Amino acid sequence: MRYLITGATGFVGGHLAEACVRKEQTLSAIVRSSSDVRELEKLGAILYRGELSDPNVVRQAVAEADVVVHCAAKVGDWGPISEYRQVNVECLRVLLDACKGMALSRLILLSSLGVYQVRHHHGTNETEPLPTTHRDGYSQSKVEAEHLALDYYKDLGVPVVILRPGFVYGPRDRTVLPRIIGNLRQGAMRYPGGGESTLNTIYVENLVDAIFLAVENEKAVGEVFNLTDGEHVTKRQFIEAIAHALDLPYPTRKPPLWLAWTVTWIAEKLARMRGAKEAPMFNFTRLKFMGYNLDFSIQKAMDELGYRPRVKFEDAMSETLAWYKSNYVSK
Questions:
Q1: Which candidate, 188, 310, 161, 294, places its Cα nearest to that of 249?
Q2: Which CATH architecture has domain 2-170+201-229?
Q3: 52: alpha, beta or left? (left if phi > 0; alpha if psi -120 to 50)
Q4: Which of 60, 66, 151, 260 is placed for a possible disulfide with 1 were both Cys, Cβ 3.0 to 4.6 Å?
Q5: For residue 331, what pLDDT band results from cuts at 50, 70 and 90?
Q6: pLDDT digits (tens, 9 = 90+) for 126-176
Q7: Which helix (H) or strand (E) holds 202?
Q8: N-term to C-term CA, the chain
Q9: Distance CA 209, CA 22 (A)
Q10: Strand 167-169 to strand 121-124: parallel, antiparallel, or no bridges (unpaired)?
Q11: Which residues share a beta bridge with 69?
Q12: Count of other CB atoms within 10 angstroms of residue 327
């Protein structure tokens, strides 16, 4: 089949593109004119150059596709909601419009476990209603994107499947892990609440496996699936694995969660008052990541997709950190 990937020059999209070639699927991608496409060209990808906001480019790309996997997104922990909506909702609308009436097998939307309410989670599954509002633009726009995609499925028959991965990690992540490494090096990491709560990790290759399962399973259409590695990994385990491998100092500060929440509220308030363009060091996205218990059930994906996380945490971290040692830390 012919796969069309958006965000194919990014972290998850790049790994998915490689997997498509390994599976001998025809690979295509929508890419910006400014994007570095050398790796995609090596893979023999058919490239459609332009913006996801351009209906003509998107229609041309979708017309030739059997499967569309929408990985492209604006991510971050700060900034106006309008900027996130423009990419994560309105560009998705252009893609969905292009898919109307087409003989697509599947449209996979990569969402996020961040759509759930900001609180401690203990086995939360897909039946939990999503909040109508979030503090940050990314999570808010992802909720809106899910609603939009499901409307196109219900009203127009677009074969949508929504996947909600947790924190995706692995080789070539140039966003979150580099930030963690930098904070460890500067001694700025903390464990709000003690560091023993669960982190909702998913190794990038496990996520790629789940995408193919969602494509192959007819019963997946119109459904939503939580995705993690299915292992209990604490914040401390994850952070200290990085610190140990890269010979960086271990975090020692463990502020109570109520204190971290208060400091974060003040920091965000002051940042907004002065119109800060960058996220303050203490913000609620980072507090959620480090402070709350993020245990989500993947039972539905296991039962309905046959999902079984193939790469275990120890091996995944070993592969990830080996890449960082040779490609990131040394530079």
A1: 188
A2: 3-Layer(aba) Sandwich (3.40)
A3: alpha
A4: 66
A5: very low
A6: 999 999 999 899 999 999 999 999 999 999 999 999 999 999 999 999 889
A7: strand 201-203
A8: 39
A9: 12
A10: unpaired
A11: 5, 108
A12: 12
Amino acid in position 312: K
DSSP symbol at 327: I
Distance of CA 227 to the CA centre of its chain: 10
pLDDT, the chain, mean: 95
In the chain, what's the furthest Cα-to-Cα distance? Answer: 56
Asked if residues 36 and 42 have their Cβ atoms less than 8 Å apart, the reply is no
Residue keyed to tokens 């203990």: 122
Spatial neighbors of 37 by CB under 8 A, at least 6 apart, are 9, 29, 31, 45, 47
Over range 94-99, report the average pLDDT: 97
Cα 135 from Cα 152, distance rounded (Å):
26
Backbone angles phi, psi at 280, to 5 degrees: -65, 160
Strands (E), 81-120: 106-110
Half-sphere exposure of 323 (CA within 13 A, CB side): 13
Closest CA to 153 of 74, 240, 224: 224
| Burial readout 305-319 (b: 16 or more C-beta within 10 A, e: otherwise) | bebebebebeebbee
Dihedrals phi, psi of 200, to nearest 5 degrees? -85, 65
Residues shown for the chain: 331
Token couple for 242: 């990085």
Q: Is the pTM of this model over 0.85?
A: yes
Q: What percent of the chain has pLDDT over 90?
A: 89
